[in-house]
Amino acid sequence: MYNMHKTKDRIKDLCKSKNIKMETLLTDCGLGINAIRQINEKKGMGSYSLARIADYLSCSVDYLLGRTDEPSTISNVIGGNVTGGAVVQGYHNSNVTVNSSERKLTDEEIELLRLFNSLDVKRRIKLLDYGFALEDESVSKKTSAEK
User: Fold this and answer.
1) Helix axis angle, 47-56 relative to 121-146, nearest 10°?
2) Single pTM value for the model
3) Residue closest to 60 by CA, chosen among 73, 46, 78
4) 11 close to 64: Cβ distance less than 8 angstroms
5) pLDDT of 74 higher than 50
6) Rounded to 5 degrees, what are φ and ψ at 19?
């Protein structure tokens, strides 16, 4: 079972380390004060609310739930460089591997990341779905051309 006090503590610690007031976090995530109160009462927190907080604090939901001690399971992108190493598994039958070497992102990649990070969770999902549809279309065209 998950320790909801750990979740609350991790949210508070991340806010403190990033110099973010709890009220600001909740307001920016479109959540009411009851979102944190629910954690105290062990009613849990809705997955959508937890995902919003994780995105806002640039960490994974797994970290907030105490399933990992690493704040982020996805490589960091700092100043246009991909650093760290991770395998990110998607629901679209694909894995993206980022190795531990550093490489410079292209301007287009940086712009895509900026755009993605500016969206709320619901719109991020729409953008990913659209990207997967474009990928499927591209694969389908390649397969047809090979026949």
Assistant:
1) 90
2) 0.49
3) 73
4) yes
5) no
6) 55, 45
